[in-house]
Amino acid sequence: MPKQLWSTIKAEIDEQILHEPVLVSFFSKRIHQHESLESALSDLLASKLASDDVPLSTLRQLFNEALSADPDIMQAVVADLLATKQRDPAVRGYTDILLYFKGFQALQAYRVAHWLWHQARENLALYLQSLISEVFAVDIHPAAQIGSGIMVDHATGIVIGETSILEDNISIMQGVTLGGTGKESGNRHPKVRAGVLIGSNAIIIGNVTIGEGAKVGAGSVVLSDVEAHTTVAGIPAVVVGRPSGDQPALDMDQDLDSTE
């Protein structure tokens, strides 16, 4: 699938060059000079996150190492690309997501930090986390567990804590916090099941479970478990209805009206 998707991306770039010749050099550097999606992604992320402390070449090698060592990362990358393309009406093509969407970029950089964390390279993982936070305004602890088919829309201000678990096919809007309850240690962050849609600026606190196919309204504060296939909203959040579909993350319908 990465090879097929890469062919599609290159075809998109060829078309875009015809419409915007000013970006020929940019498109060449980011797409045409690479033989694979893995190579292009590694180079793009390294260029975004390079610093005086860890230069571009070192970061590029690090990203390439992670993507080569763990095939699951690229499977997740592809699933995230497909998810964003399917769910975001602003997307014209896969190239938009890869080159311009910082939510997608931050999530893939997190995946490398997560890989480093499980290679007992915690210091480098945390260093990468800090860079991701500074560059993308997205703060994901490298120990957090995040599945595939994730859409992170707009992304600014998203915080995902250390013991958070996010299953597959979840959509998260900007400003969302999956946080702990303060000084509590151990398993202290939310568990978000498959198909969940979390609206912008929602705050979910503590070791609570957001059930499969649930919907959390924008600006809500969730302090307790949310049952599967329910819609919650408010401060504190309460049940206000049921989603119209089994997986609100795929529908991206943020209407809170009850279907009961």
Strand order of the largest sheet: 3-6-9-12-14-15
For the sheet with most strands, the description reads: 6 strands, mixed
Q: State the CATH class of the largest domain.
A: Mainly Alpha
In total, the number of strands is 15
CATH fourth-tier homologous superfamily of the largest domain = serine acetyltransferase, domain 1
- State the separation between the terminal residues, measured CA to CA: 40 Å
User: Which bin fits the share of residues in helices?
Assistant: 40-55%
Overall spatial form: globular
Explain how this protein is built:
This protein has 260 residues and is an alpha/beta fold. The protein has 2 domains: 1-138, serine acetyltransferase, domain 1 (Orthogonal Bundle), CATH 1.10.3130; 144-260, 3 Solenoid (UDP N-Acetylglucosamine Acyltransferase, domain 1). Helix content is 43%, strand content 14%. It has 9 helices and 15 strands. It has helices spanning 2-19, 24-32, 37-49, 56-69, 71-87, 94-100, 102-117, 122-136, 248-251; strands spanning 138-140, 145-146, 151-152, 158-160, 165-166, 171-172, 177-179, 191-192, 197-198, 203-205, 209-210, 215-216, 221-222, 231-233, 238-241. Strand 14 and strand 15 form a beta hairpin. Helix 1 (2-19) runs antiparallel to helix 2, helix 5 packs antiparallel against helix 7 and helix 7 (102-117) packs antiparallel against helix 8.
